Amino acid sequence: MDGVRAAARSWDPPRIVLGVATWPDLQAVQKRLWGNRGLAVAAMTLFMILIVAAPIAAAVIGIADRTDDIIAWSRSPMRASVPPPPEWIAQIPLLGRKIAKEWTALASASSEDLFARGAPYLKALRSGGSASSERSGHSCCIFCWR
Fold it and tell me: What share of the chain is helix, strand, coil (3-state, %, to 5)?
């Protein structure tokens, strides 16, 4: 229980939850390892690392095996095109003709033009996404290295 008390002093909720949740397992492992707390802690630490490291390693290997597919998938939008609008779009009251006109302009545009039009939106999405992933990465590092 010393580890739980030490974590409580620093008030680190993830560490407290981990300590409390695995405490019965640590005691059981300690009983099986001749009452040796050091061996039990080492075994539990290795087990926890394997629980985290094995799925990450499997994911990295899976991604590495599929790099050709990922590259092909990432280039596929460059070959995409917008289909022409259905005839009934122009029949919509008030905005139908304007929608059909804009849709036709998009359908006749090249993929480079479409990407140029969408670039500002992609930049905004990228900057927002990187900020949130940076915050979560920082939190993960604090949790792991305290």
Answer: 85, 0, 15
Question: Is residue 43 situated within a structural domain?
Answer: yes
Amino acid at 126: R
Size of the chain in residues: 146
Domain hosting residue 1, numbered range = 1-65
Spatial distance between the Cα atoms of 25 and 33, rounded to a whole number of angstroms? 12
Reading the block at residue 66, the tokens are 């599929």
Q: Give the alpha-carbon dihedral of 42, 44, 46, 47, to 10 degrees.
A: 160
Count of the separate structural domains present in the chain: 1
Per-residue pLDDT of 108-144, as tens digits, reads 888 778 778 877 877 777 666 555 555 555 444 444 4
What is this structure's pTM?
Answer: 0.41
